[in-house]
Write a structure and sequence with these properties.
heterodimer; A: mainly alpha; four-stranded mixed β-sheet; two-stranded antiparallel ribbon; elongated; B: alpha/beta; Rossmann fold; 2 domains; four-stranded antiparallel β-sheet; 9 helices; 13 strands
């Protein structure tokens, strides 16, 4: 008898997998992702260098200093910071090169990249400065003289500049005020591009540093004192290790905490798209009128189970292919795009995290559990509808339920053993997502066992109910039944 | 006599609607049995009960000696009224798939599917997808899928609907082949000529109730004889034939029933004067006439019963 279920599943699987559209559909996702990533990177690279100029009303050397600060000021800030990170082993070689014996005094490309990597582990405020540093490379300073703008009259010069901006010859120009040490009311940024704000904000922070420095000097405050006053409070991130001592946060530990979120998202995507496949498949089969022939050979239960397993296998193929592409991309993309990210290292860390915590095993279990539970619901919906349009109305509540684990994903990751996470774990419709989500916690063993048992019992009940609805539903034509009628079928033995 | 199928007082209701009422019937082994009736009369519901897709509310069934078709599924062949194929599957594959679902092993099913398709003129289509086939071919493939496992009892719901004359003949030959091989065939139809040509037995349901059942000659026995007329000319004049009770005019062919005591010879003379007579026969009524008359009478009875209330 079970043999017939296998036959149905096999046919279902082959029919899906053998079509060209199936493989196009599978490949289109990684291709689209690859294109969007690659395109962004390429666009960044080919972004047109914008020309700007600076009109200095003050006449002092502020213009020249501003330009120098804008070009290299942030680099120095970062570099100084990097040098102070005495206990960072990653920067050891860098320190050596920059040390007394190293010979280098200015950071080169290699040092910048090392700084960049280190920066990614730093507070967002610093990352912001880094972004501004990168901004400088995208804009090209053209002196007024090179633009052919002269004359002593400021308003006449501004008028000429405005014309350049209007014609599109100039992206923007800055006006530096007469007395920067007194006030900044004459400082202006003139451009017709209202969306690209990077130049304005980067230039502003460079000038802020300059003006602050000048004013400190003017006020007669010693640089050391000023530095002390301006110092920001930074918290060093630490964690408690197994022995109970305070320890540094390692790369793998961070991945450990955030990996579940990635898995939940992937789980959600997999369950959602595959369950949807089951829904459309059931409706299609009703439409092509093969159901009744099949029912003369197999029982409705066998037919339903066969479909569910066939689609599950199809889904595993899709997910497997995507995972394969993802891994491939992680290895190849950095070299392909010439990105300095150490893909292998990150991946190795990810794999270690996977092996240690049994994520993959949990993922497969929760994928099957979640899929079977939602499959039961969707196959029941599919069996009572004749068109996708009808099904969409019935799908709405299911979609709302499915959104909950997605919306609570970040929250549960941050508080894996909080009351919300614990309660959600015991709602079978959320169990696969929430328990996967909490893996960073991790929850107590009894919670794993209890929620899994509840999930399995619920799946069994849902399958039974779906079987009853399927039995009546697949042979129905006309309007979909009312909820009351469906409950009536469920009560029938 | 052994029966392939026995129904005893079978009733099926859907809510307040009675689809089949107190139906009793015996289908002898090895015969071709026609289920007649208008659309919605209860034929398909009866067949679905026989196939255990529906369960009767009361009454009992015996299919090949078992109370439930599910127990003998692999010995039954069923072609439902709603016919469909998996469009993306190849013809040989789908016929074999139906065989495997009936418990045949893989290689036998594959081999037999090819044999059957070749024998019934679809040898060139073995590797073509079902979506490429015409309706007639598709229906043939479906019937072959129904009989690939050599079932003892074959039930075909409206096997002739939508077929052109050539394919109708093919379908008829297929059914006759099955009988020759010793199988029992039940089919439903509203094409009376098919029933008349090939059925050993017929039954008719009207509005859920059995009207008659038996061999063709049993069903025709005792009914008024009628004139079978082939003619050329204006058929509208036939309605004016003196002494005619009913005229079923088909354009070139007409079936005419006279009032009791009227002489068919007189009618023939009148006809010769008014149309060109090609053939004149005075004999038992056609199944078509019996069908139409039964519907009329049953409706009158129902109306009368409604009026008395």
């Amino acid at each position: 008898m079970a043999n017939k279920t296998v036959l149905v599943a096999q046919r279902e699987y082959l029919e899906n997998v053998r079509t060209k559209t199936f493989w196009i559909g599978i490949l289109i996702v990684p291709i689209l992702i690859g294109l969007s990533v690659g395109a962004t990177a390429l666009l960044q690279r080919f972004k047109q260098t914008q020309r700007y100029t600076v009109l200095d009303l003050g006449g002092a050397d502020l213009l020249a200093r501003a330009e120098r600060e804008f070009r290299s000021g942030d680099t120095k800030v970062l570099f100084d910071l990097a040098r102070t990170m005495q206990d960072d082993p990653q920067l050891a070689s860098l320190r050596q090169q920059l040390g007394p014996g190293g010979g280098a005094t200015e950071p080169g490309a290699e040092q910048l990249l090392a700084t960049f990597e280190w920066m990614q582990r730093q507070p967002p405020e610093l990352l912001d400065r880094l972004a501004k540093l990168q901004t400088a490379g995208l804009y090209h300073y053209v002196p007024l003289a090179a633009l052919g703008i002269d004359g002593a009259d400021d308003s006449a010069r501004e008028h000429q500049l405005n014309q350049r901006v209007q014609k599109g010859e100039l992206f923007a120009y800055f006006v530096l005020g007469k007395a920067p040490n007194e006030d900044t009311k004459d400082f202006r940024y003139v451009s017709n591009n209202l969306t690209d704000d990077a130049l304005r904000s980067a230039y502003a922070s460079a000038l802020t540093r300059l003006v602050q420095k000048d004013r400190i000097q003017q006020a007669g405050i010693a640089p050391a004192v000023a530095k002390k006053i301006q110092e920001r409070v930074e918290f060093q991130a630490k964690q408690v290790d197994a022995s109970g001592a305070t320890a540094d946060v390692k790369k793998e530990n961070v991945i450990d905490k955030w990996a579940p979120m990635g898995f939940v998202y992937f789980l959600w995507l997999a369950i959602f798209s595959i369950a949807n496949l089951l829904l459309t498949n059931t409706i299609e089969e009703k439409g092509n009128r093969t159901i009744e022939v099949l029912l003369s050979s197999v029982s409705p239960g066998q037919l339903m189970q066969g479909k569910i397993w066939g689609i599950a296998a199809t889904g595993m193929t899709i997910v497997g292919t995507w995972v394969g592409f993802g891994l491939l991309a992680a290895w190849i993309a950095p070299t392909l795009l010439g990105m300095p990210v150490d893909g292998g290292g990150m991946l190795a860390a990810l794999f270690t995290a996977l092996r240690n915590s049994g994520y993959l095993l949990a993922f497969v279990f929760y994928f099957l559990g979640g899929f079977l539970l939602y499959a039961a619901v969707l196959v029941a919906i599919g069996s009572v509808c004749n068109t996708l349009k009808e099904a969409q109305n019935l799908m709405q509540p299911v979609m709302m339920v499915l959104m909950v684990p997605l919306l609570s994903m970040v929250f549960v990751t941050q508080e894996p053993n909080g009351i919300v996470a614990r309660v959600m774990s015991w709602v079978p419709l959320f169990t696969p997502f929430t328990m996967m989500n909490r893996a960073g916690g991790p929850p107590a063993v009894w919670e794993y066992v209890g929620t899994s048992l509840l999930l399995l019992v619920t799946i069994w009940l849902a399958m039974k109910g779906a079987g009853k609805i399927f039995r009546v539903g697949v042979l129905m034509t006309g309007n979909p039944p009312k909820l009351k009628e469906i409950f009536g079928w469920l009560r029938q033995s | 006599m052994e029966h392939a199928l026995t129904l005893d007082g079978v009733t099926k209701r859907f809510g307040s609607f009675t689809a089949v009422a107190d139906l009793s019937l015996q289908v002898p082994k090895g015969c071709i049995y026609g289920f007649l009736g208008q659309n919605g009369a209860g034929k398909t519901t009866t067949i679905r009960m026989v196939m255990s897709i529906f369960h009767p509310d009361s009454g009992t069934l015996s299919v090949l000696g078992h109370p439930d078709a599910a127990q003998v599924k692999d010995r039954l062949g069923y072609l439902p009224e709603e016919k469909g194929l998996y469009k993306k599957m190849k013809t040989a594959e789908i016929v074999a798939y139906f065989g495997k679902l009936k418990g045949m092993d893989r290689s036998t099913a594959n081999q037999r599917a090819k044999e059957l398709l070749t024998r019934y003129g679809l040898g060139d289509w073995l590797d073509k997808r079902c979506e490429a086939m015409s309706k007639g071919m598709g229906q043939k493939v479906q019937v072959l899928g129904t009989i690939i496992h050599e079932p003892e009892l074959v039930i075909l719901d409206e096997p002739f609907s939508g077929l052109d004359p050539v394919n109708r003949d093919l379908m008829r030959d297929l059914i006759l082949d099955m009988k020759r091989q010793g199988r029992t065939v039940i089919f439903s139809t509203h094409g009376m000529e098919h029933a008349e040509q090939i059925c050993d037995y017929v039954m008719m349901i009207h509005k859920s109730k059995l009207q008659f059942a038996g061999t063709l000659s049993q069903v025709k026995q005792g009914r008024d004889l009628g004139i079978q007329l082939d003619y050329d000319g204006d058929g509208s004049v036939l309605q004016q034939l003196p002494g005619a009770e009913r005229v079923n005019d088909h354009g070139k062919h007409a079936e005419i029933f006279l009032h009791r005591g009227e002489d068919p010879q007189q009618a023939l003379r009148w006809l010769v004067d008014h149309v060109t007579v090609r053939r004149f026969d005075y004999r038992e009524p056609s199944l078509h006439e019996i069908f139409v008359r039964t519907v009329d009478e049953a409706n009158q009875k129902l109306a009368a019963a409604g009026g008395e209330r």
